[in-house]
Design goal:
homodimer, S-adenosylmethionine decarboxylase, 7-stranded antiparallel beta sheet, globular
């Protein structure tokens, strides 16, 4: 967690940048606010290919690809599939984590990408998720985590 | 993930309830919106006991206690400590996950509690976190995840 020494007090948990594209195209966020310990992307993927979000190996592969796309160091990978369907998985990275929960029956996946460190841009995972899950509609927002007082 | 069949279209990702108590007392959320697949609590714990958020076994114990407090079924537990300090951990539950990242040097911990299923109230984990980490200041908000169209 390399950004731990670069701090100042700026925004609060309720200040976020929201990105929404009905066609699912990438909405790149250039805001790398140095005032928080972590950056947390909340990503909603709708109208996905149910096979892509319903196969545990495909989901795990996509999430590890996403971790590599942001140049994160993978520490641990945990994925589970549920009955009758649905997958939960977490990629623990040295810079925090990526998590996913899928509802193939609704063609939906919820993804979180939590990173620390100035060198990492979590938004670089966004096109990987769109492409691999074939999401036709995506929403995402970024939360600042760990906003310390000045 | 037992709530997968109870859906309607209501709020969006940007609609959330925010709870903030400078003294860290519990702000209970009675909103169990049936219009979303998941509930996601974003919790910021400031002014924690650095020993409580710096010891990997204590952090793991607290997070598993939090999972039990919301009556979740624990599927997997993954915790790592980093050099020189800091802990990352995830408790995968049948109803989604709990995650934590701590910065003991700043007496800070970031916690996420993502649940699905109407029978689970994720806010019941809140007092466990406050008590075990001895947080003097906490902020939390709830996001609705997976808001499907009508």
């Amino acid at each position: 967690m390399e950004s731990r020494l670069s701090l100042s007090s700026r925004s609060s948990i309720s200040n976020y940048s929201q990105h929404s594209k009905r066609n699912g195209s990438l909405s790149q966020n250039g805001d790398s606010d140095p005032g928080s310990l972590g950056r947390h992307l909340i990503i909603e993927l709708y109208e996905c290919d149910p096979k892509a979000v319903g196969d545990v190996q495909r989901v795990e592969n996509t999430m590890t690809h996403a971790a590599k796309a942001i140049h994160a160091k993978i520490v641990d990978v945990v994925f589970h599939s549920f009955n009758p369907q649905g997958i939960s998985g977490v990629v623990v990275i040295a810079e925090s984590h990526l998590a996913i929960h899928t509802w193939p029956e609704y063609h939906y996946a919820a993804v979180d990408i939590f990173t620390c460190g100035r060198s990492i841009d979590p938004w670089k995972a966004y096109p990987v998720l769109k492409r691999e899950f074939k999401a036709k509609r995506m929403k995402a927002m970024e939360l600042k985590r760990g906003v310390l007082k000045a």
